[in-house]
Design a protein that fits this description.
Pfam families: SpoIIAA-like (PF11964). It contains four helices and five strands.
């Protein structure tokens, strides 16, 4: 399940709970495209809160979508306590033009402040 956050007009934010599915990824992609239709460049805030199941296909779909649209994404904040997700942000930083930062769940306020700068 995903919860959409209303952070700012040029910032798309989501909190993932329970499981991340292909349908969730498609909903995120639709929201990104919708936001890009009224903003040339956007920021992306992604928070994972104790997700039990992350479908690798859904995750890879999102990574490739980000690569395709990376010229239009300024910043990506990834908030998670999982070490492997934080490690992936290093590789993602290499794949996309956006500035990518990882934050722990305790640092979520710092992540929102960073994404808004």
């Amino acid at each position: 399940m995903i919860v959409e956050l209303n952070i700012a007009g040029d910032t798309v934010g989501f909190v993932f709970e329970n499981a991340i599915t292909q349908g969730d990824v498609k909903a995120i992609q639709r929201k990104i495209k919708e936001t890009l239709s009224s903003n040339a460049n956007i920021n992306l805030y992604l928070e994972e809160d104790e997700v039990d199941d992350i479908k690798m296909g859904a995750f890879m779909n999102q990574v490739f979508f980000d690569v395709k649209h990376s010229a239009n994404i300024r910043k990506i904040a990834i908030v998670s306590d999982r070490k492997w997700i934080q490690a992936i942000t290093i590789a993602k930083d290499i794949l996309v033009q956006a500035n990518v930062e990882a934050f722990t769940l305790k640092e979520r306020v710092d992540a929102i402040c960073w994404i808004m700068k």
